[in-house]
Design a protein that fits this description.
- This is PAS domain S-box-containing protein.
- With 468 residues, the chain is an alpha/beta fold.
- The chain folds into 4 domains: 109 residues, PAS domain (Beta-Lactamase), CATH 3.30.450.20; 174 residues, Rossmann fold (3-Layer(aba) Sandwich), CATH 3.40.50.300; 82 residues, Orthogonal Bundle (Helicase, Ruva Protein, domain 3); 54 residues.
- 46% of the residues lie in helices and 17% in strands.
- It has 20 helices and 16 strands.
- It binds adenosine-5'-triphosphate (ATP) and magnesium ion (MG).
């Protein structure tokens, strides 16, 4: 044995040599758990006051006597025989419940006795109750975070056609397969958050959290502690125990920094550090905590302009925009308009419980002539409004919200091709037959029967009517 490893026992020896047994007894008596010691013959040699308190057995009733005589069935004797420790043995006596740990006492490789340590259940129980309460709290928090931190949308929810959003969707799908930071730019309502969620859900982080943060909705002085968390006592209003920041919550997932153009210059510098070091330090703390996250940022502001005005850090811009997804406004991708209208009509069909919607050619013309400053969000709201207003299964110009201007284009253009003419005749016949029977599903079934087509074909033809 080395000199240094012997030193502590030397010191203990020098204390203990005065009255070794008194020292040992005093130590055992001061322990807050019940202690009972037997020798190799199973005779009780020592108990402490806590043991008496827990079991009600006084020293004079047990010391010097075989343990099994006083406590029939005591397991401690079997520890002598097999030399194995036991832990968490439950016992109940005279209405008192306690748990016991047992261990052999070994000197020079020989079992010379055994010791049991009892802990009253009241104490264990209190600790258990405390633990249970904390666990419940953690469960609630985990559930809240879980529901808060879920991304709903996938690429299947994004409508984008050739000549429209298709190229952007393809690029976003590729970005989802990497772990690179993505910057999504586009006017309000173009679908920036939709893309962010879809990228997260297609990435390897899909099972991790998706934490959206709207940088413009939280005042900058609060945003720092929201993002980075804080230690207890970091400032006057700081909560006891401190607070976990959103960066830490997004660990192993994605943090979506929406409206990044509104982030203060001070926080931009701190965000840059997170991107470079992959660590965060809570406000008022000294410890650097490693975080494994992907950052997707979005803005409807022109970051180039902000950089020129020295309101956005150029270095941060390059870090964030490794992949830059620009979503064009709806007015610049008319190819997507019709598919989006039918997509939202389909959703409304499910939500409203009405059997199915069609839309008049005039209404389509009106929708197509509008430039949609609120982009897809405005279109979605307009369709939802119209389905509520519609008296029957066809949405007409009258059902559209007043914010959408009625245009002179509303007059019906005569169809020129033979195909279009046949289509028009087909539709007129369907409409006339339905009018004859009424607007219920039953009526439509009868109309379909009369026309010699299935109900599904009838709905199909009605739905596709404006495409001609
Ligand atoms: N291509 C699309 N296909 C289907 N739905 C879309 C599409 N683009 C946008 N939407 C829908 O339009 C609405 C607005 O989208 P989102 O909230 O993602 O826009 P945003 O760009 O984040 O807007 P803002 O800048 O105002 O926050 C959402 O309901 C979204 O599901
Ligand atoms: Mg958004």
């Amino acid at each position: 044995m080395s000199k240094s490893s012997r030193q502590p026992s030397h010191r203990l020896d020098s204390i203990v040599t005065t009255h070794p047994l008194e020292w040992l007894q005093a130590i055992i008596a001061s322990i807050n758990d019940g202690i009972l010691v037997i020798d190799s013959a199973g005779i009780v040699r020592m108990v402490n006051p806590e043991y008496t308190k827990i079991t009600g057995v006084r020293p004079d009733e047990i010391i010097g006597r075989p343990l099994l005589d006083v406590r029939p069935g005591a397991q401690l004797v079997s520890v002598l025989q097999d030399g194995h420790s036991r832990s968490g043995v439950f016992r109940s006596e005279g209405g008192v419940e306690y748990v016991v740990d047992m261990a052999p006492i070994v000197i020079d490789g020989k079992v010379v006795g055994a010791v049991s340590i009892s802990k009253a259940m009241t104490e264990v129980h209190a600790l258990y109750q405390q633990l249970k309460k904390h666990k419940e709290k953690v469960d609630i928090l985990e559930k809240t975070i879980g529901s808060m931190a879920k991304a709903r949308y996938t690429f299947e929810d994004i409508i984008g056609k050739e000549g429209g959003l298709r190229t952007t969707v393809t690029m976003a799908r590729k970005a989802a397969e990497t772990d690179l930071p993505v910057l999504i730019t586009g006017e309000s309502g173009t679908g920036k958050e939709l893309f962010a969620q879809a990228i997260h859900n297609k990435s390897t982080r899909a099972n991790g959290p998706f934490v959206p943060v709207n940088c413009s909705a939280i005042p900058n002085e609060l945003l720092e502690s929201e993002l980075f968390g804080y230690e207890e006592g970091a400032f006057t209003a700081a909560k006891r125990g401190g607070k976990v920041g959103l960066f830490e919550l997004a660990d192993h997932g994605t943090i979506f920094l929406d409206e990044i153009g509104d982030l203060s210059y001070h926080l931009q510098a701190k965000l840059l550090r997170v991107l470079q070091e992959k660590t965060v330090r809570r406000v008022g703390g000294t410890q650097e905590r490693t975080v494994n996250l992907r950052i997707i940022a979005a803005t409807n502001k022109n970051l180039d302009q902000l950089i020129r005005k020295s309101r956005f850090r150029e270095d941060l811009y390059y870090r964030l925009s490794v992949v830059n997804l620009h979503i064009p406004p709806l007015r610049e991708r008319k190819e997507d308009l019709l598919p989006l209208i039918y997509f939202f009509l389909g959703n409304s069909t499910v939500e409203s419980g009405k059997p199915c919607y069609s839309i008049s050619e005039e209404a389509i013309n009106v929708l197509q002539s509008y430039d949609w400053p609120g982009n897809v969000r405005e279109l979605k709201n307009a369709i939802e409004y119209a389905t509520c207003m519609a008296n029957d299964w066809t949405i007409t110009v009258e059902d559209l919200p007043g914010t959408v201007p009625r245009t002179p284009k509303m007059t019906k253009k005569p169809s020129s091709t033979l195909k279009a003419k046949i289509r028009e005749l087909e539709l007129e016949t369907i409409r006339a037959t339905i009018e004859k029977y009424g607007n219920s599903t039953e009526a439509k079934k009868r109309a379909a029967q009369e026309l010699g087509i299935s109900l599904a074909t009838l709905y199909n033809k009605m739905n596709n009517s404006p495409k001609s």
